[in-house]
Amino acid sequence: MISIIVPTLNEAQNIGVLFRRIANINLKAYEIIVADSNSKDNTVAIAKHLALEYNWPVKVIQTGNTDLSKAVVKVLPQAKGDIIVVMDADLQHPPELLPKMLRALERNDIVIASRFVKGAKVNLSFERRHVSKVYRFLAHLLVPRSKSVKDPASGFFVFRKKILDGIKLNPVGFKILLEILAKANYDSILEIPFRFKERKKGKSKFNFKQTKLAFIHLLRLARYSKEHYRILKFLTVGATGIIINEGLLWLLTESGLFYLFSSLIAIEMSIITNFILNDIWTFKKERKGNFFVRLGKFNLTRAMALIVNLGLLLILTASGLHYLLSNLIGIAIATIITYLTSLWWVWK
C-alpha cells in the first residue's frame, strides 16, 4: 500500500485539485493523509467534505501548530503503507510523476523528484535561488550522507517505510528530506528530474523564519553526523602544518639556504605531514586505495588552494583591501577548498 502524506497550511484553494489529480492517475492501493498544521482557512473542512463526497481514501489529521516537517513526522505512525510519499499541496509537485517514481522505487530505497538534475526545470526567484545554492552547499559539507544528492531540500520524494525502523526523526522548519538522508537506513537513492511549477493559488511558506529554521536544522544534523568534529580535526592538522612550515622555513634559511628554496621544502614537508595526519586521524575511516595516489591527489588539492589563495591576495589587495586582510580571506577560501576536495576526492 502507498501512503501519500500531504502537509498543509492554508491550502484550501489547492487541496481539491490535488485530490482529483491523484485520483486520475489510478494508483492501485493508496491512502492520502492530510497532515494539517492549524490551517486558518477551510483546508480541513474541504478535505473532509471531498473525501466523503467522492469516497476518496483521505484521512485528515490535525497536528497542531507545528512546522510542516514535524507534521509529517507526527502522522507517519498512522500511515498504513509500506511505501511513503511526501509531497506539498500547492500543486508545485505534479502527482502525475508518481507512477514513474514508484517504478524507480522498485530498485531503490529513496526516489527524489529533483529540481537540480539534468532535465529538470525550475523557476525560482533570485533570493530563493541563491538561498537554495547556499543551503545545498552547506548540506553537502555538513551532512556527508547527502553529498550525492543534488536536491537535498526537495519536498517531493518517495521512500520505503522500513528505512525509518528504529530511527527518531526530529526536524525543524518545512523540510524533512535532509533529516531522512542523515539518519535513515538506506542503500540506494535515485533522483528524477521534474518541472517545479510556480504556485498559482495560496501563499508561499518561504520566508525569513523558515529560512532561518532550515539552517538551524542543518547545524543540528551536523552535530548528529559529527561532521563538525572532522572539520575541527582538519583545522587542527592545518594548524600543525603552519607550525611545521614556519619552523622549517626558519631553520633552513638560518642554515644558509636561499629563503625561496627553503620555502619550497617547508611547504612540501608541511603538505606531507598534513596528509599523513589526515590519513591516520581525520579521514581514517575513508582510507581506500593506494597511499601514494592519495598523497598525489592531496598535493594537487593544496596546489589548487595555493593558486586561489595567491589569486585572492593579488585581486583583493589591488582593489584597495589591506594585504593582511586579503591574505586572511584567501586562506579561509583556500581552506574550504582543501577540505571539500579532500572530502569529495582524496578520501572519497
Tell me what you see in this structure.
With 348 residues, this protein is an alpha/beta fold. It folds into two domains: 2-225, Spore Coat Polysaccharide Biosynthesis Protein SpsA, Chain A, CATH 3.90.550.10; 227-346. Helices cover 53% and strands 12% of the residues. It is built from eleven helices and nine strands. The strands form two sheets. A seven-stranded mixed sheet has the order 3-2-1-4-7-5-8. Strand 1 (2-8), helix 1 (15-24) and strand 2 form a beta-alpha-beta unit. It is elongated, with a radius of gyration of 25 Å.
Question: What is the CATH topology assignment of the largest domain?
Answer: Spore Coat Polysaccharide Biosynthesis Protein SpsA, Chain A
**SS-based structural class?**
alpha/beta
Number of separate strands: 9
Under the CATH scheme, the architecture of the largest domain is Alpha-Beta Complex
* Helical content class: 40-55%
Weakly predicted, low-confidence segments:
none
Strand content: 5-15%
The CATH class of the largest domain is Alpha Beta
The neighbouring-strand order within the major sheet is 3-2-1-4-7-5-8
Query: For the terminal residues, how far apart are their CA atoms?
Result: 37 Å
User: What best-fitting shape do the alpha-carbon axes yield?
Assistant: elongated
Question: What count of domains describes the coordinates?
Answer: 2
Q: Give the CATH H-level superfamily of the largest domain.
A: Spore Coat Polysaccharide Biosynthesis Protein SpsA, Chain A
Topology order in helix (H) and strand (E) letters:
EHEHEHEHEEHEHEEHHHHH
**Average residue-wise pLDDT:** 89
* Cα radius of gyration in angstroms: 25 Å
Major sheet attributes: 7 strands, mixed
Count the helices. How many?
A: 11
